[in-house]
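Supplementary material to the annual report.
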Amino acid sequence: MTRRFPFITSEILTLNALMVASVLSLIFMNSLVAAPKVLFGRSLSAIPPSLFPSIVLVLLAGMCAATLIIVRTRITHSILEDRMGRTEWLRAVILFGIMTLYAMTMVPFGFLISTAIATALIALQMGARSVLQIGLVSFLGPVLLYLAATRLLAVSLPELNTIELFYADMLSLFASEAPAVPATPDASQ
Amino acid sequence: MIEQFTEGFAMAMRFDTMALVSVGLFAGMLVGSLPGFTTLMAMAILLPISFFLDPIVGIPFLLGIYKGGIFGGSVPAILISMPGTGAAVATSRDGYKLTQKGESRKALDMALFSSAFGDTCSDIFTIVMMFPIAYLVMQFGPPELFAVLLMSLVIIAATSGANPLKSLIMMMLGLWLSFVGTDPLGGVERFTFGLFDLKSGIPLLPMLIGVFALPEVASVIIRNEKSRQLAALVGERLSKAEFRRCLPTICRSTVIGTGIGIVPGLGQIVAAMMGYSAAKNASKHPETFGEGEIEGVAAAEAANNAVNGPTMVPLLTLGIPGDNVTAILLGAFVAQGLRPGPQLFEEQGATVFAILVAMVIANILFVAIGYLSIPFFARLVTIKTSVLIPLVIMFAFAGTYVFRSDATDLLILVAFGIFGIIAKAGRFDVMPMVMGFILGPSMEYAFGQTVAMSSGNPLGFFATERLGALAVLLVTPFIGYVLWKRLYGTPAKI
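Predicted assembly:
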């Protein structure tokens, strides 16, 4: 069953966005790609740095346009029904909002606090209501991962100095011979 | 070559390699057993761990996840008809019917043994074939390399979705993203918008985790998937007689899977379906397939696991990842300072063999771990997603951060995650994009060298001096079309 052209689907929006972006990039190519380096009047590379991007962007814009035309003529009822609904998109927006918050707070707040907030929010979004479950996932998970990463794999995760010192003190209680050497904290206080 | 093999064999016989392979196998089986969680996601999230291990330990660890995950996907496929991975779709047809008949234990045993058989045979084939192919590839110059890279991208685009135009669009987008940063030929900045963080280009790791792992996680939340019906693991174990009866089918599927594994872009799903179809066609009782036929499970599982070894052939000899899993492996190789390609065999031949030998060892461990852990993995299918998903997201973010200790990578991760979910909703396959991103710089570099060799006239150069490369370029569209036609057959479904 053929329907009228639906203007707002993620597919059409993506195609339009890619087409517009590639056309704009082609127009402003000279600003987006630096001029080739020249030595004694000769270019240092065999092909100009904008050649390959230009070819790719022309093809991209052309293919997006062609696909949009095909979409217009062949879109079917079943495809419209299959696409994500408003509720699904809302869940996706909330989830990626939490993730963005997590990404932005990890360094200033430290790994434990930012992870505890993000995982608790995600668990709540998924319908978890048990305080014990949320608490275990949000606090025990990041603490164990942090200790495993910094002590076993010797890699650094951002953490506040206070919390890092607390970990070091706790571990030194278990390892009586020598206090644990704290990993270099990346987070600002 | 023999010297490198023996050296590699000795290198692989390390306790830490075997221990980490076992951990990888267990982790892969664990993740594969959880419906909605894929091997790809597990590999993407655990990839950063491999960076901090020796190459002979870190890469086999990832291979363990890969192998374990493919088998793990068959557990929910058999027990609750919910394939944990795309490769297990064919397995669920007969596997779930066997569960309904009260023979789930037998089906899982068959999945395990046929997987291990198919995988081991294909790994041995890979070890035997790797060096002759690498030797052939060493004769390649920039024009041949450019032609082969272009052909690989076209094949990947043709085989990754029903609509080749959309796959090509994603491939072009990947190429475009690969231009961000510094030009590989002239060293000038492109598409950086003056941002210092983009001068070295878009980092591969946040892209891999962002487009492969986050959309999978997000789709569980978006679908609001919470609990599942408990499935019991019942019935007798698989007998030797039953395995022997299925052996011809397993061998046939192994050959099919091995052949498919070499071709970039096809992968486990196609292999499992073809192995299953071939077994059904060859059977004297094709009507029993789909009704709980143990041969159906054997055919699908042997075929999908036989893909694992040969996918390493284009990856290691040409640096071309055949599928999204090998794209992640390529990331691991590069992070370890090993650049896949013909030079790798000259410079690090023993290491390559050590990794390949570790793949065979992994299969032995795979049988032991799988046999003992099947009851445990069978229980996993009922774990609450509200416990798992937040932890998976935490791993994804921590893994991304530890690679470069750069908070910008976290934002790039989220950006690619958002793009991944939009692409999923719009039915765009992100695999060609990742392939374009990975192969873009090599392709541009090879093209630039070709232009330099031809004194600015590449077309004339191809036609007069590089007929082999020209032939590859000319047949590429036909190969792409034929593969697409065979896989999808019908006009483009948007």
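Chain B touches chain A through 66 residues (CB under 8 Å).
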